[in-house]
Amino acid sequence: GENVEQHPSTLSVQEGDSAVIKCTYSDSASNYFPWYKQELGKGPQLIIDIRSNVGEKKDQRIAVTLNKTAKHFSLHITETQPEDSAVYFCAASILGGSYIPTFGRGTSLIVHP
Amino acid sequence: SQTIHQWPATLVQPVGSPLSLECTVEGTSNPNLYWYRQAAGRGLQLLFYSVGIGQISSEVPQNLSASRPQDRQFILSSKKLLLSDSGFYLCAWSVQGRVAEKLFFGSGTQLSVL
């Protein structure tokens, strides 16, 4: 089955800095990579996703890049703000398949004012 | 639009007592439904998922069970809670036939077993 590794487990940055969270996956057939943000005491919410037919996707201050050859993908947050503080999860799956997305173990992002 | 309701938000139960957590989804038909648990750390552990009424798949053998009595209702139960059942329980749904795509999570239930 799929295995997703996520690093770092904790990331501390100053407000205004950039933050990068990296994930690797094991199944070369995986072609869908969502990212979720979980604020304290709440359920995770999808913030951005990417399919394997593109290498990068942006949405305002967040972007995701995908390297299919190396089987890794990353979340980039620019100009971080205190409200970006949360736990972020990456995941991988095969669109149209019968397997539920495999999640990484999460990264706790702390943005210091 | 679709919404997911999960309750209660917080629950404190003694060891050995029963458990029933309920989740309902509105605004969609025949969704895929999921129960996840987050223990002391941050990881999301998949407990159960269902692709239709009466179809429940268990991912991890444990002290819990799940049922889907109606199309958009998913219930997590236990006959006798253990201390190790403490955690943050999350219900989620995805579009029918698309188990591999995006999940929509509820707000969670914080369960403390004392």
Quaternary class: heterodimer
Distance between the termini of chain B: 38 Å
Gross morphology of chain A is globular
Q: Work out the helicity level of chain A.
A: under 10%
With helices defined by DSSP (H or I, 4 residues minimum), what is the helix count of chain A?
0
Mean pLDDT of chain A: 95
Low-confidence stretches of chain A: none
Helicity range of chain B: under 10%
**Largest β sheet strand count, sense and barrel closure of chain B:** 7 strands, mixed
Which range does the strand content of chain A fall in? over 45%
Note the beta-strand portion of chain B: over 45%
**Taking Cα atoms only, what radius of gyration of chain B do you get, to the nearest Å?**
13 Å
- Inertia-based shape of chain B: globular
Give your account of this protein's structure.
The complex is a heterodimer of chains A (113) and B (114). With 113 residues, chain A is an all-beta fold. Chain A has no helices and eleven strands. Chain A has strands at 4-7, 10-14, 19-25, 32-38, 45-51, 56-59, 62-67, 72-77, 86-92, 102-103, 107-112. Chain B is built from no helices and eleven strands. Chain B has strands spanning 3-7, 10-13, 19-26, 32-38, 45-52, 55-58, 65-70, 73-78, 87-94, 104-105, 109-113. In chain B, strands 2, 4, 5, 6, 9, 10 and 11 form a seven-stranded mixed beta sheet that branches. Chain B is an all-beta fold and 114 residues long. The relative contact order of chain B is 0.33. The model of chain B has no long low-confidence stretch (mean pLDDT 92). Chains A and B meet through β4 and β5 of A and β10 of B.
